[in-house]
Specification:
Order of helices and strands: EHEEHEEHEEHEHEH
Number of helices: 6
Distance between the termini: 13 Å
CATH class: Alpha Beta
Structural class: alpha/beta
Length: 205
């Protein structure tokens, strides 16, 4: 049975793209970033493509490729386009699919909708968290948003240095499994991604 995995974060710059690459490699899944805002010449799709080794993965074009590195609603206004969830349709494929969100769950894509509105009930959500002062609050708030919308969180992946106290309280209060951690590596290449993919594949069964 094929599944769609939606990778979201507790904020921006928490490691979503690296983890999306690892998940894509682990599952030999297809990859899709619905909304790219800024860095069009070195987009998240470009980055994931450079990190994935398997030949099965297909990379699908953005529904919206916006020029300015801002919240999608603001970047779309500059580009004079209207971003809506109705215009964002996942590719029709026979493979697992990894979908990478933009920023966190409540990042607006227009005046009424947020990134969370792109997540369908059948999607398996993976929440990426990173330790900093306030990250417990941001992680638990993200989990509350998912619960309030009836969305399933498959688990949390932490990026960066370990903090056992923080991870323990998030696991207890959030009542979701911790799938693993991506360490603060000096660099990420295909070999490093492959190593992490092997570990994650076991966690995902």
């Amino acid at each position: 049975m094929k599944h769609t995995y939606f990778v979201t974060g507790i904020g921006t710059e928490v490691g979503k793209t690296i983890i999306s690459a690892i998940l894509t490699e682990a599952l030999k899944a297809d990859y899709w970033k619905p909304i790219q805002a800024g860095d069009l010449d070195n987009s998240d799709t470009h980055k994931v493509k450079r990190l994935v080794s398997n030949k099965k993965t297909q990379f699908h074009p953005n529904s919206f490729a916006l020029k300015t590195p801002m919240s999608p609603h603001a970047a779309a206004e500059i580009d004079k386009v209207k971003v809506t969830s109705e215009k964002i349709n996942p590719p029709k494929i026979e493979n697992n699919l990894v979908v990478e969100g933009a920023g966190g769950l409540l990042v607006p894509i227009n005046n009424k909708e947020t990134i969370a509105d792109l997540i369908k009930p059948e999607y398996r959500v993976i929440l990426v968290s990173r330790h900093y002062l306030g990250s417990i609050n941001h992680t638990l708030l993200s989990l509350e948003v998912l619960k309030a919308r009836g969305l399933d969180c498959l688990g949390i992946i932490f990026s960066g240095e370990e903090n056992k106290t923080t991870e323990s309280i998030i696991e207890k209060m959030g009542k979701v499994p911790i799938l693993g951690r991506i360490e603060e590596e000096p660099y990420f290449d295909k070999n490093v991604v492959l190593e992490y993919a092997e570990k994650l594949r076991k966690e995902l069964g």
